[in-house]
Amino acid sequence: MKHITLPRPLVNRILTLAQSSPDREICGLVSARPDQTLRCIPVSNVAEHPERLFAMDPAQQIDAMRQMRERGETLFAIYHSHPAGPAEPSATDIEQAGYPDVLHLIVSLNTKGVLELRGYQFNNGKAEAVYLEILED
Question: Looking at 25, 95, 116, 128, which residue is catalytic?
Answer without folding.
Answer: 25
